[in-house]
Amino acid sequence: MDADLWALETEARAQGYRTIAGVDEVGRGPLAGPVVAAAVILPHSLAGSGLQDSKKLSPKKRRHLYQVIYQNATAIGLGIVDPVEIDRVNILNASLAAMAMAVANLSPEPDFLLIDGQFRISSSPSQRPVVKGDALSASIAAASIVAKVSRDALMDRYDEEYPQFGFARHKGYPTRDHRNALAVHGPCPIHRLSFRGAAAAGRTIP
Questions:
Q1: Residue 64: which residues within 8 A CB-CB, separation 6 or more?
Q2: Which of 38, 7, 12 is nearest to 23 (CA)?
Q3: Which of 85, 120, 160, 206 has the fewest CB atoms within 10 Å of its CB?
Q4: What is the CATH number of the domain that holds 174?
Q5: Given this model, what pLDDT does residue 203 score?
Q6: Residues of 29-51 as b/e, b for ≥16 C-beta within 10 angstroms?
Q7: What's the pLDDT tens digit per position in 132-166?
């Protein structure tokens, strides 16, 4: 499976591209917290490392691969869009903005992007959107891992600030426990008030 994940990168190189970045985001579905994107440029020497879609990995394996990626990647960029901006522009536009931000934070700059999903982003390099790309491209899979681990770490820190919501457990997703906490406490400053489940709770904790 790992070898197959390099097919899109190999195809891009055959077309003359040399610096290929995979781009992915996490955090579209939660009621709270930011959307986080990552862009990763991998060396082909990372083939055989076991990269795959972050959703298919255990937390332990995901953290291990996160370290492998950071130790070996040519470049990594992050983009973070907070809940206030998500409410202002909507979650799709916030996700695309986070991915563009992640690409802008890469050095060296890529000349080709493999982007998870069906949309292009506001960025100058040539682009190829790939539906379910985190299961089809090593670079996108790496970006999904970096984005997921980075966002989870942010939500763990928010859990310390707002312990009544249990963010360390559910990372802001609309679990039963999270909805129950919202019903009791109302939303806090990192809740997305444009999302029905958070807005229905009706008041904000200072």
A1: none
A2: 38
A3: 206
A4: 3.30.420.10
A5: 52
A6: ebbbbbbbbbbbbbeeebeebeb
A7: 999 999 999 999 999 999 999 999 999 999 999 99
The token pair that represents 205 in the structure block: 């904790």
Pairing of strands 112-116, 75-81: unpaired
**pLDDT higher than 80, residue 192:** yes
Distance CA 146, CA 67 (A): 9
What pLDDT, in 10s, does the model give residues 29-58?
999 999 999 999 999 777 666 777 677 788
Show the tokens assigned to 37.
């994107």
Instruction: Name residues whose C-beta falls within 8 Å of residue 14's C-beta, 6 or more positions apart in sequence.
Output: none
Q: Would residue 204 count as lying in a domain?
A: no
Task: Specify whether the CB–CB gap between 143 and 110 falls below 8 A.
Answer: no
> Which domain, by its residues, includes 172?
4-199
